[in-house]
Amino acid sequence: MKGICPLSSGSGGNLIFVGSGKTKLLFDVGLSFKKINEKLAEINLEIEDIDGIVISHEHSDHIKGIEQIAKHTAIPILCNGDTAKAICESIDTRPNFKIFSTGEAFTFGDIKIHPFSIQHDTLDPVAFSLEFDGIKVGICTDLGFASNLVAHHLQDCDYLYIEANHEEAMVHACARPLIYKKRVLGRQGHLSNKACAELITKVHTKKLKHIYLAHLSSECNDPEVALKTVGDHLLKNAIETPLSIAAQHEISKKILF
Asked: Per-residue DSSP letters for 189-216?
């Protein structure tokens, strides 16, 4: 399969498939091993078909499946050194790590991967730009603030998978403790619908063909709210690129290249 398909997105677990045709990757594995296999079966793949697993950071909703994957397969786990160390401290099995350096592009199979720094409350969190066959994909979630560095790496993408975690008013109104609200709204938390829309506007070019709104909060966001907030902002800026939601509980829109 040559394309991109979000298999699960949100605090309940994150799992994204990207395939070049020659190379099949998963970005983050925040579901159980059983659930990962079930999700892959829905797109006619098996875990044995996966060439590599790329990890953004060590929060459990991004690494839950690693221990069982390491026990049952030899699939390379691609991450930076700090993330690898944190993973090793949380599981008993040693994964087959392939360590990259944040900020330095590398090639895995026929896919060029550029991990770049983002602001989040983990050791060395990263987002990614991917390039293959003249296609550029940006995968960027779990950040409290979109820096100029982030915008630089997301320029000229054909496809964006980008965080629209919360609606700020819904965070303020929810029953969660103040410490939770400060974390989510802070510069090392998560990107709001408004901030997501502003980032898309900043990096948009005529190349951009589709945008996934990802990592939506189940409590402090709603798919219709996210689509309207982001969509209205983009239309005000004469941007008509199609939007879709990367869902938590079902396979999302599959895009074939």
From this structure: S--BHHHHHHHHHHH--TT--EEEEE--
Residue linked to tokens 């629209």:
164
Tokens, residue 121: 């409350």
Q: Which two tokens stand for residue 87?
A: 């993973």
Summarize pLDDT for 243-256 with one digit per residue, the tens. 999 999 999 999 99
Q: Do residues 58 and 90 touch, judged by C-beta distance below 8 A?
A: yes
- Tell which residue, 241, 212, 227, has the closest CA to residue 140: 212
CA angle 36, 64, 95 (to 5 degrees): 95
State the Cα–Cα distance between residues 30 and 68, nearest whole angstrom: 12
pLDDT tens per residue across span 129-167: 999 999 999 999 999 999 999 999 999 999 999 999 999
pLDDT exceeds 90 at position 232: yes
Residues 115 and 90: beta-carbon distance below 8 Å: no
pLDDT in tens, 41-56: 999 999 999 999 999 9
Report how many helices (DSSP H) and strands (DSSP E) the chain contains, helices first: 9, 14
- Is residue 251 within 8 A of residue 11, CB to CB? The reply is no
For residue 5, what are the β-bridge partners? 17
Burial annotation 200-226 (CB, 10 A radius, 16+ → b, else e): beebbeeebebbbbbbbbeebbbeebb
Mean pLDDT taken over the chain: 97
- Amino acid 226 reads A
Compute the distance between CA of residue 178 and CA of residue 201 in angstroms, rounded to an integer. 31
